[in-house]
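step 3/5: co-fold with iron/sulfur cluster
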Amino acid sequence: MMLPVPPAMRAAAAKSPPPMKTVVRRIKFESELDLAFGERVAERAYGQKLLSCIQCGTCSATCPLSHYMDYTPRKIIAMTREGFKDEVLNSLTIWLCASCYSCQVQCPRQIHITDVMYALKREAIARGFYPAHHPIPVLARSFYERVFAQGRNTESRLLITLYLRTNPLVMLREAFLGFHLWRKGRLSLKKESIAGRKDLRKMLNAVEHGKKEEPL
Ligand code: SF4
Ligand code: SF4
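step 4/5: write C-alpha cells
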C-alpha cells in the first residue's frame, strides 16, 4: 500500500531543481600573466622603484578616494608588478585617481604611484579600454575638444556636454541649481574664446600627431 505524500513534499518535488552554480576560476596561472608588464610600466613612470614596493599600504591609507576604488593603490602597484595587465587597465581605480599626489609624497619607497596611474590611464585610452559612459574620461575628452576649438573652456557648456554624453537625467536634476547660479551671475552661458586659436590648434595637432608611445 502506498502512503499518501504530504502536500508540502509534493510541492517541493514539483519545483524545478535549483540551477547549478557556475564554477568560476578566481585565480590566474602564471602563464596567463604578462610578467614583464611591471618593468615596462616602471620605465614609463620614471624609475624601477615600482618593483621595490614593500606593500606597506601607506598609499591606500593616504588616498582620499581608495574607499571608492575597485583596487586600492597598494593593490594596483602589486598587480602591475605581478603582470595583471588586463585587470589594472580595466580597473575603475585609474579613472578615480584624482592625481592629488598624496600617496606619492608619503610612500616610504618613493614610488611614483601617481605617475603609474597616469601611465596606466594613457595605455587604457590607447587600447580603448575606458568605460564608455564613465564621466571622467568623457570629461577629459570634452574639455580637450572645447579647448581645441575655442582656446578656453566654458564651464556651463562643458557641463552640458558632459551630461548629454553620460547621463542626461542628471542634467534635469541639476537644472534648477544651474539656473540659480546663472541668475546670481556665477555661471555664464557665453562662449569663451581666445585670439590666435589657429596657432593653438597647430600646437595641439603637433602634440597629438607627434611621437606616439609604444604600447605597454
Ligand atoms: S606606500 Fe609605497 S611601498 Fe607602501 S604599498 Fe604603497 S607603493 Fe608600496
Ligand atoms: S594620486 Fe591618486 S591614488 Fe594617489 S592618493 Fe591621490 S587619488 Fe589616491
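step 5/5: annotate
Residues 135-150 form the longest helix (16 residues).
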